[in-house]
Structure formats: structure tokens, C-alpha cells
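explain this.
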Amino acid sequence: MSEPKTIVITGASDGIGAAAARRLHADGHRVVVVGRSPAKTEAVAQELGVEHHVADFARFAEVRDLAAALDAAHPRIDVLVNNAGGIFGDRAKTEDGFEKTVQVNHLSPFLLTTLLMDTLLVSRASVIQTSSSGARLFGDLRLEDLDHDAAFTPHKAYGTAKLENILFTRELHARFHARGLSAAAFHPGAVATAFATESSSFFRLVYKNPLGRMVMVSPEKGARQLVWLATAEPGAEWESGAYYERGKPARRVNPQATDDDLARRLWDRSAELVGVQTA
């Protein structure tokens, strides 16, 4: 095996995040698990004997504390996996004043990544985003209304947030690849997890239905692309800035996902909203 990597995985207390943590740890990598649930996150960490952190991405203060803790503990981070996210129920604002879906799925991962940027650049790291084909099916990004004040549905908010993951990946590549950073987003497939249990959308019915779960893949299978992107060599085995489905750059995407100007403007707007200065 190549040199072990330090790999930070958010959303690692369950589902594909936990499955990826188990696989990567078994392969000899130094895994750091991050989750929202103290009990579930600690259970995964104790099972593997690894470091863990608890952070609720609906609170920017906890994301900032997480970034400070990771920075203090790790002079090198080889891979940051922004896997935390989800689809929620009726429209709700966080204590920071943002619609919960956009904050948990996009703004908080953006904040964490930018706060860790110095370490990531020194490490020539890879940043991996767990996105979704929902970006193509439901995403409709309007920079003047990131909170969906004009028109909200749970699946539209989720699809748009997953589109933002792809655009964030694209802009990470544009801004930092020349300085050694690589980035990719991926769709894990329909995975039989606790996804959508907090949602009032039709996704909740699909994921609770035994017939629906019969055609879904296991968390272990859903985690395969994540594990591959975390361990394979960017530039040689995968393309930085790309969005992957089934191990290949996706051929069918939301037209907004390839708009470089939109990616740049989303970055600038996100930085303004979370209160960070970026290159």
C-alpha cells in the first residue's frame, strides 16, 4: 500500500461515511470521523479506535470549533471528505439565519473547507464532496434566493444544495489546483440508509418502503467511490474538478453545473454569507 493518508470524513457516524471510515481504516489510513450525534459518532470511533469530533452543521459556531480542533491536531490533512448533509422537512431557518438545507449541505462544508485551506494546500490535499443526481433532477440555483424564500420544497432545496456541491468542487479546482489542491464530487447512488428520515418529502416514503430499499445499494457499496477518490491519485486516476457517477465523470448533468461564472459567483456569495475572506 502507498503511504497512509490522514482522512477527515464528515457525516461519518452512519451510512456511507461510516462505511468508508471502516474501509479506509482497514486499509491502514489515519481516519478522523466527524458526526452530529455524539453517541453514534463515538460508537464508530471506538469501534475503529480513531479520533472523532462532534459538530452540528446547522450551527456555524460548531463548524468553526471543528476547524480549529482539526487545525490544532493535524498539521497535515491529505483528504477532506465533505459528506455531511441531508434532506429535511418543512422550511426552517438555523440560528445563523439560513435555510437549514443550504447551510448543512453547502454553506457549512464551504466554511469548514475554507477555514482549513492553509493546511489543505500545504498537504496538497484532495477535497471530496458527496453530491447527488438530485442536482440534475431538482437543482435550480438562484444566487439572489439561496434560502428559497420565493419557492421552497424539500427536494428542490436538496437538489439545489447538491448542485452547489458540484459548483463548489469546480471552483475549488479553478482557484487552487495550480497550488496542489484537487477536488471531486460524486453521486453514491440510492443507498439503503437513514437518509430522508427527517424529511417530509416523497424521498422519505421511498426510503422507508421495503420495495424501494430492495433496489438500493448497501452503504458499503455506496461508499466505494468515496474510498476510491480518497485513495486514488488525482490527475492520474481521476480528474480534478469533475463530478462522478459510477466511477466516471457524469455525462448527464444539470446545465448549471458546468457554468464557470456561476461557480465563481456562488463562491463569492458563500464567502460573504459565512464571513470568510478567500483567495
Remarks:
- The chain has a mean pLDDT of 91.
- The radius of gyration is 17 Å.
- The first strand starts at residue 6 and ends at 9.
- The first helix runs from residue 15 to 26.
